[in-house]
Fold this protein.
Amino acid sequence: MKINNKYKNVIVSIALLTILGSCSDSWLEPKPLSFYTPENSFVDANGLYAGLTAAERNMRHEYFGEGAPIQTEIIQSDIAVNGCTDRSSPQRNMDVALLPDAKLNDLDYTSVGYYWDEGYSAIKYANLVISRLDNAQFKNEEERNAVLGAAYFQRAYRYYKLVHQFGDVPYLDWEITRPLVDLHSYDRWSILARMKKDLEFAYKWVPEKMERGRTTKGACGMLLMKVCIELGDYDQAITIGKAIVATHPLMTERFTTNKTKANTNLMHDLHSVEAKLDMSNTEGIMYVVSHTGIEGSAKMNIMRGCVPFWNGVQIKTPDGRTGTTEGQLAEGEDDPLMNLNQTYGRGIGRVRNSDYFVYDIWGEKEKNDLRSINNRDSWKHTSDLRYNEPSLKGKSPWYGKNIQLPVNISKADSIRVWYAWPHYKVFVPDPLRTRWDGGDTSWYIYRSAEAWLLIAEAYYWKGDLAAAAEAMNPVRRRAGAAPLVAADINIGEILNERARELFYEEARHSEIVRIAYTFAKSGKPCEVFGGRVYKLDNFSGPGGVNSNVKQEGFNFWWDWVNSRNNFYNKVAYGNNATFKISVHHVLWPIPATEIALNTQGTINQNIGYPGAEKNIAPLKVPETGTVMGPTGMDR
């Protein structure tokens, strides 16, 4: 039977996902070959693209499922903390939760280990395609370079995160053919310099128009902008950014079927499920795609993570009765607002927003901002919800009234159940399930709104504050905020705008760390902290045995998060609600098992964590050639 090429590629993709996906449990071990081996499938562009499907699926998993890894990035930042105070396991006291031998990849603890494991898994998938490129046949040089560029992007996307999460890390750049126990840490700056070259190639050759979920030219440009800024090439970042926003104009008019819904606005349109499927959406640059029936898909579960636990036993009416239900409504009740489950989603408060995110960033110039707490269609608070427990109807005057903060609720419980959240951003309907945790949707990885903000940041580092304000204003005008002027611009205002626009899209911890490294490398005085100057040589603090240092001046990440987040180092309500960060948590611990199993090499531990005393000078990635491949040291 002759198989249509379209379906043949799908079969190969699924087979390769089975082979490659199985590698995630042990990212350094080669796997037995089968019929669908690289030799059999990586013979042309279609086969190689199919190989990259594994890396693209890996991108998707960061945002989807219970306790999605992106929540770790959000929680270890200025905008939120883990609010599940009913258990002692989650990442709140980082002095305990972030240790090299802690549970670093566990749903009930943290996803720090996920980023290490899955980062290197995706790098392995990309390297496999890169290594097999010369054995494949292509129509022309353009097709070959497009495949190589897509693989370069997938690899650079992971290294970008790894060097901002873990600092100096092992550098793998070729197909793994045997277990590796002789790895070494490589200098993060040399990794970034090599990624810049790779991304410049990718930006030149990867097509602009690709299927949703695939690597695009714009995506390569977005990542290249960030690397350029950190390496001090601000003009190149600005040039690329201007090209991106010209190709991907912001959506400034209402669109999709959501525009006719009551109590919605343009922000609801932009972040709806429909918007991410709408091919007229010019703002989206790269997406991850997850829908029922697509291989490797998962539910978003974003409402479960971000919405308060309004269905907890803590929510009582003022006369002491159970106040809410996610299940059957009272007989005859037809007000949709009484169906809390389907109107807001059923949350558990895992991502508990800080006062900085909910209140502090919304000033007088944001009073009309559609993204702000001032717009009660966009943002909701537990007090907006109504008592809907069926047993209250006809028996309590509180039925149908707005929820009140229970007078006897503990401070720890209130953390989980009493706060505001950006409803417009996190509402993902889930009609296929009874409990609406968050259903099927695609999700933005990059939008042109972020490109505008990166342009603004590049101008900031150049000292051109007027141009920085001008670059931020298209995003602000679209949202209804008043324009900024040069006098408004500092790094704090740039981070404020990123928080306003990019919640649950940007890897917030990593982006603040990127800025922290830029301050330390450039020596630019930080106006937010009185002109403080940071240095690379003590970036993670003094280290040593007693390294839980909570002192200003070592790195911008700690100074910023500690000063903006109203929980860390300020709230201690017992073991389940004690929030702490230290200076060295700017970088996460390298998992102890990775260091221990690397018996013939040296993977450095980050300063401030046990084991750092054994560190040696990291190696540097060569400017050309490979480390592991035919032009380098063949491992």
Q: What stands out?
A: The two ends are 42 Å apart (CA to CA). Residues 1-209+506-635 form a domain with the Serine Threonine Protein Phosphatase 5, Tetratricopeptide repeat fold (CATH 1.25.40.390).
